[in-house]
């Protein structure tokens, strides 16, 4: 019964609108279930009559696995010669969808549609959720936020203490994912994502002072906190989009990342992974990503998804470790403060989300290097772009902080037009001012501080000498800024965003100690590199992606 119209498709998208999206996977057969067996299970056929009663047209018809939602229910994609009032949905040119027992009865009696594909379950996404979780950027140029924040009560938060990381992750992430991914599959993805971390606690807390802790987020494969989200997001994308159809393009500023960072992007051997070194800075890369998302015809042609730090699903995965660290240190009975080395406001926005979900937090402290747009904004109420200065903490060399827009939306009471006005002003004049009310709301939750190059180096050296703990330059910025905000009564957690061995030259220069790579990463330093150097121009990057993406040609 294969229909050539569907032969190459993976998911047949039946509807996709602001009401949400639903689709059927039409190329995965449920091997252990025949139509006969299904009809018997549904009491449409008796056990012994099946062979006799099923008409030729449907005998031996495959049952497909349509997707993870409502797997008990049959969905029939069929030709338009069959229609049931009320329950048949016309999709387009001659294709309909019916999901009632009646159509199965009709098929069993030979009165069904001439052409039909039967699937159990469907793939579904709540309004905007598909884009939220997978694509990263909204079509209006804005960023996605969940409609409301799920709430965790005190008992639930207390119960996180001592639980395995993956179990807490499942509880925190589940309410956002809703029915789009069944719990058993979500749990399997989470378990797998965190099983590969080098520390059994996944994100352990290490005490470095009387009431100061480092939350080590760097035990994943690339030695930085981004692994916590990417290990899970990669699996979610494979799950939703299908691994065979995915091409990965990594954009980074040529010559502005460390050797270890570059090698992590240039040494994967999979032929669907492309490392693109752009002759520009990090903000140029970010602007090109945004430009591609806003170029709708390109975006649709290559089925673009983004996993940079503006992807909502990344932030979602990062909320988990705030709850884990908070509960470990006594939340909800005791407040905790966090200092977060940040540039794009992604990691710290996850902390704000945790607060919105019920975690009692004394303060979230923004720690920046000399590229201090965030610290300046909180101090002055004026968000003002300046030129980027390269530093020894390159992952924070940013002067356009994409996720800050999410905070603006939150503190403006989700007033989309006021956020748009500020963003328009930023685009036109390079700056905007935040009104009194929203600014006061920001300051109630956030503090800020900056750390220059000499202070960064001194903090690395001092912490090594005093605590025997080797910091990477990004985490050192957090430790420096945290010191100015500690009051001794509240535990201060500094997010350890990178392993010192990711930035060995800067760490050695500051402390005299050359940090060693974890054993499982040593091979990377001698492996062959593959990268493509491109001008930091939208056209050039789009052209490269279009000529190298399989999705661009294999799309239905
Ligand atoms: C990406 C990164 C940061 C900054 O993260 P934000 O998304 O800007 O909050 C800080 N430190 C390291 C090591 C990073 O890789």
Description:
The protein is an alpha/beta fold and 556 residues long. The protein folds into 3 domains: 4-125, VC0467-like; 149-224 and 312-517, 3-Layer(aba) Sandwich (Rossmann fold); 247-310 and 519-556, Rossmann fold (3-Layer(aba) Sandwich). The protein is built from 22 helices and 19 strands. The strands form 4 sheets. Strands 1, 2, 3, 4, 5, 6, 7 and 8 form an 8-stranded mixed β-sheet that branches. Helix 7 (183-195) crosses helix 8 and helix 18 packs across helix 20. The radius of gyration is 26 Å and the shape is elongated. Residues 224, 226, 309, 341-348, 395-396, 474, 497-498 line the site of pyridoxal-5'-phosphate.
Task: List its traits.
binds pyridoxal-5'-phosphate; single chain; pyridoxal phosphate; amino-acid biosynthesis; elongated; alpha/beta; Rossmann fold; VC0467-like; six-stranded mixed beta sheet; threonine synthase; Ser/Thr_deHydtase_PyrdxlP-BS; eight-stranded mixed beta sheet; 40% helix; 556 residues; 3 domains; Thr_synth_N_sf; 19 strands; disordered N terminus
CATH architecture grouping of the largest domain: 3-Layer(aba) Sandwich
Derived from helix and strand composition plus strand pairing, the structural class reads alpha/beta
**Mean pLDDT, rounded to whole units?**
85
State the assembly state of the protein chains.
single chain
Q: How many helical elements?
A: 22
**Topology, number of strands:** 19
Uncertain stretches:
1-10, 130-141
What percent strand? 15-25%
Summarize the biggest pleated sheet. 8 strands, mixed
The first-level CATH class name of the largest domain: Alpha Beta
Hetero groups in this structure are:
pyridoxal-5'-phosphate
EC number: 4.2.3.1
Modified residues (N6-(pyridoxal phosphate)lysine): 226
Enzyme class: lyase
Keywords: Amino-acid biosynthesis, Pyridoxal phosphate, Threonine biosynthesis
């Amino acid at each position: 019964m294969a229909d050539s119209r569907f032969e190459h498709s993976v998911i047949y998208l039946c509807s996709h609108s602001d009401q949400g999206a639903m689709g059927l996977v039409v190329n995965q057969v449920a091997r252990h279930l025949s139509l006969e067996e299904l009809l018997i299970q549904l009491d449409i056929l008796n056990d012994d009559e099946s062979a006799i009663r099923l008409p030729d047209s449907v005998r031996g018809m495959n049952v497909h696995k349509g997707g993870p939602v409502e797997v008990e229910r049959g969905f029939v994609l069929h030709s338009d010669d069959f229609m049931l009032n009320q329950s048949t949905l016309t999709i387009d040119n001659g294709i309909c969808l019916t999901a009632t027992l009646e159509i199965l009865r009709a098929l069993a009696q030979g009165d069904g549609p001439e052409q039909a594909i039967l699937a159990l379950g469907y793939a579904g996404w709540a309004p905007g959720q598909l884009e939220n979780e997978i694509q990263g950027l909204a079509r209006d140029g804005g960023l996605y936020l969940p409609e409301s924040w799920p709430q965790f009560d005190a008992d639930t938060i207390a119960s996180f203490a001592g639980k395995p990381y993956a179990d807490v992750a499942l509880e925190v992430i589940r309410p956002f994912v809703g029915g789009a991914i069944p719990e058993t599959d979500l749990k399997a993805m989470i378990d797998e994502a965190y099983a590969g971390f080098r520390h059994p606690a996944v994100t352990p807390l290490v005490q470095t002072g009387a009431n100061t802790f480092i939350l080590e987020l760097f035990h994943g494969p690339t030695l930085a906190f981004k692994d916590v989200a990417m290990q899970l997001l990669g699996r979610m994308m494979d799950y939703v989009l299908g691994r065979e159809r995915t091409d990965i393009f990594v954009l980074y500023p040529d010559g502005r990342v460390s050797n270890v960072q570059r090698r992590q992007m240039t040494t994967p051997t999979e032929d669907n992974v492309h490392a693109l070194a752009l002759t520009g800075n990090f903000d140029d890369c970010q602007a090109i990503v945004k430009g591609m998302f806003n170029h709708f015809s390109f975006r649709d042609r290559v089925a673009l998804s983004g996993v940079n730090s503006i992807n909502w699903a990344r932030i979602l995965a990062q909320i988990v470790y705030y709850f884990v660290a908070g509960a470990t240190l006594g939340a909800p009975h005791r407040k905790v403060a966090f200092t977060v080395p940040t540039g794009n406001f992604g990691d710290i926005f996850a902390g704000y989300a945790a607060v919105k979900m019920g975690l009692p937090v004394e303060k979230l402290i923004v720690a920046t290097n000399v590229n201090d747009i965030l610290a300046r904004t909180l101090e002055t109420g004026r968000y003002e772009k300046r030129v980027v200065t390269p530093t020894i903490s390159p992952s924070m060399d940013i002067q356009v902080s994409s996720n800050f827009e999410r905070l603006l939306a939150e503190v403006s009471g989700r007033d989309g037009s006021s956020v748009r006005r500020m963003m328009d002003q930023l685009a036109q004049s390079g700056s905007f001012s935040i009104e009194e009310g929203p600014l006061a709301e920001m300051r109630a939750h956030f503090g800020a501080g900056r750390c220059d190059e000499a202070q960064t180096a001194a903090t690395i050296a001092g912490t090594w000498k005093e605590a025997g703990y080797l910091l990477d330059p990004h985490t050192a910025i957090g430790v420096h800024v945290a010191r100015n905000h500690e009051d001794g009564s509240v535990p201060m957690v500094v997010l350890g965003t990178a392993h010192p061995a990711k930035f060995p030259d800067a760490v050695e220069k500051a402390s005299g100690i050359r940090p060693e790579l974890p054993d499982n990463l040593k091979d990377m330093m001698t492996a062959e590199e593959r990268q493509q150097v491109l001008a930091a121009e939208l056209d050039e990057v789009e052209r490269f992606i279009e000529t190298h993406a399989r999705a661009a040609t294999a799309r239905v």
